[in-house]
Design a protein that fits this description.
Elements: H1 4-12, H2 17-29, E1 32-33, H3 34-41, H4 45-57, E2 61-63, E3 70-73, H5 76-87, H6 91-104, E4 112-115, H7 118-131, E5 136-140, H8 143-148, H9 150-157, E6 162-166, E7 179-181, H10 184-191, E8 202-209, E9 213-220, E10 223-229, H11 235-245, E11 247-248
Parallel strand pairs: 5-6, 6-7
Antiparallel strand pairs: 1-3, 2-3, 4-10, 5-8, 7-11, 8-9, 9-10
Helix pairs in contact: 1-2, 2-4, 3-4
């Protein structure tokens, strides 16, 4: 749900209604395709690219150079410090700086993003499950997550191979599709750590799609944080290692 008061504030600095909606959604999701932005904002498809181009031209967002094109917001501190400086300059100075932005826009770098809110994590997980084209590997050690995303996992499994790995055999009863368990390496490296490894974090979920992007949900003293990485240079290696080790959960 987009906060109307936030939209009003963004329109107050010169954004259109569509620009404000897109910018808010991207600020929450951190990275998304034009189609995914359309699904979240309900902005007509014919206006999405026009709006994204406008925001990019104003320095609020950047686009990846690879296909499919993904969009992400420029660092918010950097963006609004620039706006603050520009607001106190003369019209001539402002004009010269905006012209310079047209040729100085940096090459976008897709990297890791923290997802702090439940809404953001939920939407990004569901989008990954929808857009995967060749393979999904999902490691889960939490009954609540299996239940919450069960329908999305089942839909994904009808399109691409989905390898659902549970941390404990008793979780198999909550799995919406055929599931697997891992060997000792997966257990001590991902689900639980060996004695003496005082990491302080526990993994609830690790989702890897097409061996190029990943999303993990970690718990630290009862607080959940998501980490989304695209492209994830380790996803291909880790995916292969997981598939080499897992075994189907035997049916009772």
């Amino acid at each position: 749900m987009i906060d109307d008061s936030l939209l009003s504030q963004l329109k107050g600095i010169g954004m259109s209604e569509y620009e404000a909606k897109v910018y808010v959604i991207l600020s929450a999701l951190r990275v998304a395709s034009a189609r995914e932005i359309h699904e979240q904002t309900k902005i007509p498809r014919g206006r999405i690219y026009e709006t994204l181009t406008s925001l990019g031209g104003k320095g609020f967002i950047v686009a990846s150079s690879k296909s499919p094109v993904r969009y992400s917001p420029v660092d918010v501190i950097q963006t609004f410090e620039r706006l603050r400086r520009e607001s106190v300059r003369s019209l001539e100075g402002l004009y010269e700086r905006l012209k310079a932005l047209e040729t100085e826009t940096p090459e976008p770098l897709m990297q890791g993003y923290k997802l702090f809110t439940e809404w953001t994590r939920d939407n990004q997980i569901r989008m990954i499950l929808r857009r995967a084209k060749s393979e999904i590997i999902l490691l889960c050690n939490d009954k609540e997550f299996l239940t919450r995303y069960g329908r999305d996992i089942s839909r994904a499994a009808k399109r691409v191979p989905v390898y659902l790995v549970v941390g404990r055999k008793e979780l198999a009863g909550f799995a919406p599709i055929k599931c697997y368990v891992g060997g000792s390496d997966i257990a001590v490296s991902l689900f639980q750590h060996e004695e003496g490894e005082n990491i302080g974090l526990s993994m609830k979920l690790l989702l890897m799609a097409d061996r190029r992007e990943s999303l993990s949900v970690l718990e630290d003293n009862g607080r959940l944080t998501g980490i989304f990485i695209c492209p994830d240079i380790y996803a291909s290696y880790l995916s292969r290692k997981v598939l080499q080790e897992i075994q189907p959960v035997a049916k009772n």
